[in-house]
Amino acid sequence: MPKIKTKRSAAKRFSVTGSGKFRRRRQNLRHILSKKNAKRKMRLGQSTEVNSANAKAVSRMLPYA
User: pTM to 2 decimals?
Assistant: First the structure.
């Protein structure tokens, strides 16, 4: 059976932590930033953990994880 290819779009969007969980970037930090306060923009700049409901789907797209 051949190797399973990684979904390249998913590989660019998600990374794996040391404990095996997935991290993702938050949305809403691309444009219309003038109406968002500094505290909100700082929080959006941090990455966050992928929800457990979506973790299985992400792991299927990234077979190396």
Answer: 0.84
